[in-house]
Request: fold
Amino acid sequence: MSTLLTQLPALLGVLVGTLGTILATSLADRARWRRSQSVRWDERRLDAYVDYAHALKESHSVALRMTADLRPGSHSHPIDREDGLARLASSDARRTIVWENLLLLGDESTVAAAAVWRDAVWQVERLARGIIEPPQDVSRLLTSVNEARDGYYRAARRSLGVRGGSVEQSPALQQRFSTDRP
Reply:
């Protein structure tokens, strides 16, 4: 019995060391798993943000081409109305699908900014489809699209933790619109 009592502190030390190692390893593994999950979801979120931006830009580009004749000095290459309507329908279907990914993975402010951008592009599409009459200043309509896009990119970058300078394009594009006019 005395042998057991003399070895008991050593056995307790081994037991405490083993439990400490198990606990430390478990905590480290859990933290590593959380980091990998975070990176994994950030990658998917980035893909959703980029896919949505591409789909919306596709719709906007087609609508711009369809309205090129309404914008003196436009650099857009005009497109046949029927071809344009078919392309708008196709890009609208794609945009609807990627919108669902954005709703699922995006944070609240990015989804809200995406909706503002989408609504601004819809106004240009409505003009291209002939649903609304051309406003006196079409460039204001395009400026609202550019400002909404800038807002979307700011929100997406904030959501992803991307740092860096401004990505705003609207002021430069607005200046270009004003200098391109005859």
Notes: Residues 41-180 form one domain.
